[in-house]
Amino acid sequence: MHLSINKKKIYFYLFTFVFINTLFNINQIGKFSNIFKLENININGLNLDEESSLRNDLELFKNQNIFLIKNNHIYSILDDFKQIESFKIKKIFPSKLNIDVKKTTYIGKTMKNGKVYFIGNNKKFIEQKKINIQPNVPFVFGNFSIEEFLILQNNLKDNNFNLDEFKSYYYYKNGRWDLNKKDNITIKLPFTNDEQSLKQYKILEDEGKIYKNSIVDLRVPKKIIISYK
């Protein structure tokens, strides 16, 4: 009889201990979660309007446990913000997120579906209305890819062209370009070997044989045809 009562007491004390210990652990977990809730998001590298727009997109992470926020979820939001070229994310414990942003440079603008878009060096089209300060960049006509335009610009830079001298570019369906300079010179590049053609043009320009208001046709292999507007 005494043995049965003692067993009941042991079970009661054991249950009480487990119950109190569980409550204590739950309370500690709650305190831990509260300490590591994300409270502050610092964004560096954007103007006030851009920062406000990005901050709104990042609000969903506020009050989440900073340990449980996955970087790839933040990456996807930043990647959708088309003005950004690169970024660095740093979690500052216990409750702070620091984001350093590098904005893209604009290399041109174009028209798509009736809207004006700027062309970013990050290979993205950025709608004009999303940019506060409108950069002075050349207009690019035609149905081109940014990769094709970047290849052309790199070829120009490799051959010592000053990109600020160009006012517009025209891309044709067959994959070739016309380049229009601010001094009213038009350069007609061939479908292939445009880099070699640019070298030939540059030689003539450096020798002073290219004049204003001229059309320099490089489409015929091994020939340079110069006419005047």
Low-confidence stretches: 1-5, 9-20, 22-32
Let me know the largest β-sheet.
6 strands, mixed
Q: Give the strand order, joined by hyphens, for the main sheet.
A: 7-8-9-10-11-12
CATH class of the largest domain: Alpha Beta
The total strand number stands at 12
Helical proportion, percent range: 25-40%
Query: How many angstroms does the end-to-end distance come to?
Result: 119 Å
Instruction: Based on the coordinates given, report the CATH architecture of the largest domain.
Output: 3-Layer(aba) Sandwich
Structure summary:
With 229 residues, the protein is α/β, with parallel strands linked by helices.
Tell me the layout of helices and strands.
Layout: H1 2-35, E1 40-44, H2 48-58, H3 71-80, E2 84-92, E3 96-103, E4 106-112, E5 115-120, E6 125-127, E7 139-141, H4 146-158, E8 166-171, E9 177-181, E10 186-188, H5 194-206, E11 214-217, E12 225-228
Parallel strand pairs: 1-3, 7-8, 10-11
Antiparallel strand pairs: 2-3, 4-5, 5-6, 8-9, 9-10, 11-12
Plain-language structure description:
With 229 residues, the chain is an alpha/beta fold. It folds into two domains: 40-103, Roll (Ubiquitin-like (UB roll)); 106-228, Cell division protein FtsQ/DivIB (Rossmann fold, 3-Layer(aba) Sandwich). Helix content is 35%, strand content 28%. The chain contains five helices and twelve strands. The strands form three sheets. It has a six-stranded mixed β-sheet, with no helix packed on it. Strands 1-3-2 form a three-stranded mixed β-sheet, covered by helices on one side. The longest helix is centred in the N-terminal third of the chain and has 34 residues, at 2-35. Mean pLDDT is 87; it is low at 1-5, 9-20 and 22-32.
